[in-house]
Amino acid sequence: MLKKRLILVLTFNDGVLFRTKKFIADYRYTKNFIDLWSADEIILLDISKKNRLSKKFLEIVRFFSLNCFLPISVGGGIRSFKDAVNLFQQGADKIVLNYSTYRNPDLIRKISEVFGSQSIIHSIDCRKIKKNKYEVIINNKLKTNLDPIQWAKIAIQNGCGELLINSIDNDGSLLGYDLELNNLIVKNVNIPCLALGGAGNWNHILQLFKNTNISAACTQNIYHFTNESLKSAKEYLKKNKVLVRE
Amino acid sequence: MPLINNKPVDIVDVGTGNIANICSAFKKVNISYNLCSKVSDFKGGKIILPGVGAFADFMDKLKKRNIDNYIIDKSKDNISILGICLGFQVLFSCSTEHKFTKGLNLLKGDFDLIQSNLLIPHVGWNDCEIKKKNDLFKGINNNSDFYFTHSYILKKYEVKDIIAFTKYGTKFPSAVKKNNIYGVQFHPEKSQDKGLLILKNFYEIC
Known about the structure:
The complex is a heterodimer of chains A (246) and B (206).
Chain A: E1 5-13, E2 16-17, H1 27-31, E3 41-46, H2 55-67, E4 72-75, H3 81-90, E5 94-97, H4 100-103, H5 106-115, E6 120-130, E7 133-138, E8 142-143, H6 148-158, E9 162-167, H7 179-186, E10 193-196, H8 202-211, E11 216-219, H9 227-239
Parallel strand pairs in A: 1-3, 1-11, 3-4, 4-5, 5-6, 6-9, 9-10, 10-11
Antiparallel strand pairs in A: 1-2, 6-7, 7-8
Chain B: E1 9-12, H1 19-28, E2 33-36, E3 47-51, H2 55-64, H3 67-76, E4 81-85, H4 86-89, E5 94-95, E6 101-102, E7 109-113, E8 122-130, E9 144-150, E10 152-157, E11 162-168, E12 170-178, E13 181-184, H5 192-205
Parallel strand pairs in B: 1-2, 1-3, 3-4, 4-13, 5-7
Antiparallel strand pairs in B: 5-6, 7-10, 8-9, 8-11, 11-12, 12-13
């Protein structure tokens, strides 16, 4: 049977793993991730203010490709087919598309025709307007008047293989995933969906899997970034009858 | 490590996708490899046929370079071949992906879309029920998890060729072996220690 996935989302600023202010950013810390045997997947995102997908960031992608034998998805600032090719060559298994496809959905099609739809995750940043009503937000500021379901369907038609549902409201809140948002989207599409934003404890992940048909729980929470905590998360899920990889 | 075959593995590289990761995996298990994008690149070692993308496009790329015929010839010379994901699919007779397309036809079987009430693609870690004792899975426990990502599954096949099944809606063949021809639907290079062991087994004993 297919397992529910736990995915680590690592964000990089100018090639340095970006963490909360209390921690000192440290490239050596990145290297600890080679021991992450319990993670099911890793997503690397470049969140640099300028000069995204720089040489430094590409070196990080390469580092993970050489050391972590699990699926690696890479995103942040992919604007063209060439950007995507470059990332695949560095070892990305999948790329994460977001803002650039808003004006250019054809980019999804171009990439999927060559690399297959399984190689594309489309990220959708959503903000709540009212009950059961959300809006797609571009670049954390631009309101689109687009309903996430409507936008998800455009992305799927163009050939994306998975959706990354990002709740802007719950991001960093540690209050749990937005179950309403995730349910709304997952019930209206037929591709695997990954949820991001809000995981504060193992119970949040359990609630996500119990109450939605989400395929993977993503966490950016620094306290979840050790092999021991991943193991304990999986033990907790297993005890509560969620099928996870040992 | 016993030196079984001092030739590097020949990895077919027709410019689609995750070759970098296949190379990383072979580096990790200390097996030398040789990238082959045309027939003259091959050194006569065991052949790895990795693939991502679409069936028809991939077959096209193999044919344009005459690599399809090279692989068919070598299969008759008893050179071991391991197909991975799409590389596994093209070992068979045909697929209906986008349009009906013939494969290398080294094994009998047809690929068709996963049943439509399931999420497609089938992405993530799923277990392999090992049906027959075989060298490829040597040292790997039954029902171990491997990483899958695909939309098409083998629907018609010869049961005797199948060495592992996986369940997604229905049970489908996830690994095959017929004489010197091996194939896995999952990605060993993305399946951590057990996946690396599959690659090592292939090089050393298959």
